[in-house]
Every structure is written in structure tokens, then in C-alpha cells.
Amino acid sequence: MNIEDFRLLYDYNSWASDHTLNFCASLTEEQFTRDLGSSFRSVRDTLVHIYGAEWVWLERWHGRSHNGLPPTVDFASFDAVSHRIKEIDRSLIDYVESLTNEDLQRSVSYKTTSGAPFTQPNWQMLQHLANHSSYHRGQLATLVRQLGAKPISTDMIAFYRERAAQACA
Q1: Rounded to two decimals, what is the model's pTM?
Q2: 154 in Cβ contact with 21 (< 8 Å)
Q3: What's the CA gap between 106 and 29, in Å, rounded?
Q4: Backbone phi, then psi, for 67, in 5-degree steps?
């Protein structure tokens, strides 16, 4: 993959986050925080996990390692989570926009949240994070269905189709 591929991938990631927030916005507070027995209990907890993972990776790319993700209790409402996700999406796009093809090959050293040291090429971490967020957005679609609501498709092909339609308009 080259830098243009990653820029497109992170545009997609932001688009998919926005669509996910749109279908989660219709939930009541009780639905948003209801324990559904999933990996991250509720819709809120899953959204916070996505945000936290994106934040911790961005921090690593800037040379800062943390020993944990932001606590879920810091996100009492949908609006609080939504605001932070929109901020991190913008920051991720800005970061990827600042990279060159050479930067993709650059190795980054960091520590995991448990303190284990790793060094990996930037491109591997960028690929991982976009995939990680997609995986958990899929979990959110299931959680929303369990609540009786209908999720909006965040499939990448829907992103491409929407872009093509906008280009023709």
C-alpha cells in the first residue's frame, strides 16, 4: 500500500465512524448503556473502545505510550462519545495526510498498555487500526440490532458507491 491508499482508507474510516454515530444517535440513553453481554458490554462501551484504541495508536505515533485506554466512565452521554470520536477522526486524517511513502516504512517503537515494548513499521500499525475499528463497528451493528434498531451499512463498498455518486452529481 502507498500513502494514497492509506489516505483513502482513513477517509473511509472517518466516513464509517460518522455513519455509525448516525445510527447510534437514535438510541435512548438506556439502550445506549444497556449491558448486552458483548465484548464491551454496551453500545457506549464499544464506541468508547474504538475511540480509545484510535487515541492510543495516534499517541504512539507521536512518541507517547500510555498504560491504558480512557475509562468508559469519562463518557457519560452519547454526545460526549460522539464529540471525541469526531475529534480523533480529524486527528487521524491530519496525521495520515502528513505522511509520505517513506514514513510508511519508518519503524515506530512503543509500549503496549501492559508495558510490553514493540517496534513495527508504521504501515502495519495504520493497517491494523483501520481494521480494528471496522471489526468493532461490525459488533456495534449487531448490538444495535439486538436493541431493535437498524444500523446503517458501513461496508467499504458503500463508501466507494457514495463517493462515485457524489462525483457524478
Answers
A1: 0.95
A2: no
A3: 43
A4: -95, 15
CA 155, CA 143: separation in Å to the nearest integer? 17
All three cell numbers of 95: 496525521
What is the residue type of 49? H
Second-level CATH architecture of 3-168: Up-down Bundle (1.20)
Q: How many CB atoms lie within 10 A of CB 156?
A: 16
pLDDT in tens, the chain (169 residues): 899 999 999 999 999 999 999 999 999 999 999 999 999 999 999 999 999 999 999 999 999 999 999 998 899 899 999 999 999 999 999 999 999 999 999 999 999 999 999 999 999 999 999 999 999 999 999 999 999 998 889 999 999 999 999 999 8
Residue at 126: amino acid letter: L
